[in-house]
Amino acid sequence: MSATVWPPISHDDLIKEEEASLAAELEWLLEALQDTLGSLKSGLEECVALLAPQDPGTTLALSSSRSETVKGFVTRIGTRVVKGDISLRLPTLPPPRPHSAYPLHISSPLVLPQLSSLLTLLNQSLDIIDISTWTGDPHNASFISGQLRLLADTIDEAKLVLKGGEEVVGGRWWEDDGAGDETNYDPTLPPALSPHLSIASTSLLLTVRTLQPFRQPSPSASLTGLSLRQRLGLAGAGPAPHDETDQVFLYRGQEVRVVEKVRIESQDPSLMAVMAKLSALGHAVAGWRGNLATVMGVEEEEE
What we know:
The chain is of the alpha+beta class.
């Protein structure tokens, strides 16, 4: 069974009718997209609200599950950790007298660079929507297509910031002075101690490292790689092996090695909610980009 146009029209007229139909469909799609942009803006504003500095903030436990190595809590308000009390029991960090564990008290707020970057990206996304709605031509398909692509890229970047890693701002502990500034702690941090707060997979991550200056091995070093005390069995239990054992870092102008490393994560409900909302928003933007590309008759990458 076939469909025909009656009364019959010429091929040229048929092409014109098809173009007119696509133009009408594109106009309808652009009009509908304006309502969707309003919904996307509301979702982004909810993400911003979750990062707003509101008392009493979010208090998160930071304690090792099967030992007394790390035990304590921190309180996050907005993009800063405003207070915290943590005790450390590390083989390479003897506590000061008369304490049985090394006290780590956050005495002044610590800015979390990842959350500051996330907030900036959310505000940029809101600006993109405002430009799409008020500043630019909302009926220009090419313009709207470009804005959607920019919005998708910005949301993807915000999600990467929440996932963390060395490639995001604040992810390289040896370059980040904010989360490891010795003046933010009481007592003042010794040179051999580097606590670092960051975001990893929507959780607040505390990484505690003890350091020692890096020295090139001398020609007379033991062929076994063990010290005399270790060979005699007098050294006691040493730190557990970790993934940075063989690396050398330039930390505050000095080459250092990481002697001991401990990681503690605490899930942050607000950051988990932000990630869930961003994932949903990103999926919605991807759907509208695909629909628009189809009606425009272009590949999505060519928009």
